[in-house]
Design a protein that fits this description.
- It is built from 4 helices and 5 strands, in the order βββββαααα.
- The strands form 2 sheets. Strands 1-2-3 form a 3-stranded antiparallel sheet, with no helix packed on it. A two-stranded antiparallel sheet has the order 4-5.
- A hairpin with a 5-residue loop joins strand 4 and strand 5.
Length: about 210
């Protein structure tokens, strides 16, 4: 069992059925003490029930044991050796304790950086595998690509026909408007001719 202190809060990490989202804070969770005085801590009742049912944590995808067994998390590293519990008695030394606390913080930073690097390498390898799968599927299903190309060309032809029809309709509308204007021109001329004598008579009356 491991106990870590962060900002005056003690977090007890349990290895069995440990999940990614839950941490066992002091005073929380479930503690089971076996007859040989070994303690098992659980963050919630879900983990405790699986433990009592004697389930294998490596078969559940939400556990850290499964992720480490599947290679999804960093499992082998020198930083994990610092977390092991040592039963050797050590005489109290203030300088030693101060250096130990500083080393713990530094070890946590190194461990976090290595986890992030491991994650990036895993994602890079996964992207390469996905690309290989995509290329293999493309090689197997070339006919589907040809069909998609034909469908795309037919769609482009249909759109071209629609645009041509719209352009022809606009041209017809413009021609109809021009014809209407030409038909209305004689009537407008007659109205203008009628209006001119009226203006002349009005001017003569005023004069």
């Amino acid at each position: 069992m491991l106990e870590v202190r962060y900002a005056s809060r003690r977090i007890q990490l349990h290895r069995l059925f440990a999940s990614l989202r839950f941490l066992c804070l002091a005073g929380h969770g479930v503690v089971f003490v076996r007859s040989d005085a070994k303690m098992f801590r659980f963050c919630r009742s879900k983990c405790h029930k699986h433990f009592k049912a004697k389930h294998n944590p490596r078969k559940f995808k939400w556990t850290k044991a499964y992720r480490k067994a599947a290679g999804k998390e960093l499992a082998v590293d020198a930083t994990f050796e610092f977390e092991q519990k040592r039963n050797t008695p050590v005489r109290y030394d203030r300088d030693l304790y101060v250096k130990t606390i500083k080393a713990m913080k530094r070890v946590d930073e190194i461990k976090q950086a290595r986890k992030e690097r491991f994650y990036m390498q895993r994602m890079l390898a996964a992207s390469e595998r996905n690309e290989e799968k995509d290329y293999s599927e493309l090689e197997k299903n070339e006919k589907l690509l040809l069909r998609e190309g034909q469908i795309r060309r037919e769609e482009e032809r249909r759109r071209a026909k629609v645009t041509q029809a719209e352009a022809a309709a606009t041209l017809l509308d413009e021609e109809d408007e021009d014809a209407e204007m030409e038909e209305q021109k004689p009537a407008l001329r007659k109205e203008k001719q009628k209006a001119v004598p009226v203006q002349q008579t009005l001017e003569a009356d005023f004069n």
